[in-house]
Amino acid sequence: MRLLIVRHAEPDYVHDSLTEKGKREAALLGERLARIEAAAYYVSPLGRAQETASYTLRLNGRQAETLPWLAEFRGYTVNEKTGKKRIPWDYHEKEWHDHALLLDRDRWLEDSLVRGGNVEQIWEETKNGVDALLRKHGYTRSGGVYRCERNTDETIVLFCHYAIGMAIVAYLINVPPVPLWQGFLCLPSAVTTVVTQEREKGEVEFRCVALGDVSHLLAGNEAPSLAGLFPECYNGVDSTDPPSWPFQSSIPLVR
Q1: Alpha-carbon span 152 to 145, nearest angstrom
Q2: Which of 11, 31, 79, 196 lies most in the core, judged by the most C-beta atoms within 10 Å?
Q3: Which residues of the chain have a pLDDT value below 50?
Q4: CATH number of 2-244: 3.50.50.60, 3.90.1300.10, 3.40.50.1240, 3.40.30.10?
């Protein structure tokens, strides 16, 4: 089995839709994914993911099943000093660097940086959602692996969001999500590929073979968007929204 976890194209968060650039990205993504014989498509209920998926589905004449748990990871934490809600990613490195529990697969939810909110509840929802989806395709979790009567090379496509995508990958490869959230970023319309390895008959493990691939943009001469990334060089704007930056907000194409 092959799972393609797709982040939505460049978003207009205010209207929960795509920017004009995002529409170009989604069109190039659609051309790429339309060449793949997918067994099933699943999509987040949020508008930016639905719109991204529509380009692929229209080209393939297919429909996608909307899964509520594929909405962006809705878990939040509470800042101990201010009492304000925070998302459990985009911490400053110095904030989480000495929190060793965040690197513990079994105990990361005990750390103070993820307590006080609903992260544990949404993490459980995510795990249950992944397991329910895979059971539908014949895979049942047993410990850190999945058992199946007949493993196949079918492809399943999930149109969703960055943080939930990394949470899915973390659960499948049996690591805590925090280092993935903090250390990686999938740019808009990026495709992450996770595949099964069946080293013993009827028992599969998952392995990520590509994370955040935007080759469809480069092939279409479209510069990747930086939406979701903090500024490369300090500019006084601590934001992941490139339109608020006072300089270029996309990665130059490599010629």
Answers
A1: 16
A2: 11
A3: 255
A4: 3.40.50.1240
